[in-house]
Amino acid sequence: MAIPEQTAALLKSARQIYQDLPADAVLILAETGIDWEAVRGKLGNCRLLIAAQGRAATAKLKELPGVELLELDPVAMPIVDRMSLALLRAVATEQLQPGAHVVVLYNGIAAEQGRPEPIDSLSVIHLGEHLERMSAHDLRMLDTRVPLETLRLVVDLATEIGREGRENKPVGALFVVGDTKKVLSMCRPINFNPFRGYNTEERDLRDRRVREQIKDLAQLDGAILVGRDGVAVAGCMYIDVPAEGITLSKGLGSRHWTAAAVSRKTQAIAVVVSQSSGTVRIFQNGQVVLHIEPLARPHVWQPFHLETADDPEPEIQEPVGD
User: Fold this and answer.
1) Residue 302 domain-assigned?
2) pTM higher than 0.85, yes or no?
């Protein structure tokens, strides 16, 4: 099977960019049959990742030497979302490091349904600039009763806290979103509720001023509860929920265990900001379903390292600690 001329030209360009930049990998989003051995030959010594959909395509690519495979669920989605999902999967499986440069080849122009065109587009992605933004796309993959708009508000706020800290100091935080009545039944106050007595508008996360005030409140001990409508309900709350049967990576502290446990016992989504690294982790049904690295955070407090199961990150233990 001959490679179309435009695909061959793009492969040549990808190889040149990979060498000149230099990049860490070439990623191809596969949509149609192609002579993969010829592709491998055109790319030379470039490190090649292929994101394939479907069992048949995956099985065939597993037999191809010199290729790292990213298996994606065969779900219809826009090409931008599929690119984001592939890159996030590569980071999650440690095939790519946060901050990597990736040359991406894909079919970016809509074609007749059932007859995808060969590769027609090339993009250069720097994960240090794009990973946080792309992670927001992945929120729509969560199976949750919490509206996407509310989730994005809380995740964006948590990411800002992890990146910026407060008053030149790192800050950890725990947000619990949704299923508020049940979550409150598991809570007791550590301090005065900072949201008590304020009307709905003064507690609505859609207001930038409210989000800035919550950044200050995040320095206080305890969880912040947010309703599914995006309105803050309570703060400084100790969540008393057992963590039996929960399994987490080594080095994650009580804040993460609490998030896992409450997300397992309720329909809520828990969002944790790690005080030591600024990493944001999203918990659902007792498990981490997404994590976002604070790649723009100034490395003042400790050198950056990618979390692994055997590489514990230091955590400050608090009632709902890191």
Assistant:
1) no
2) no
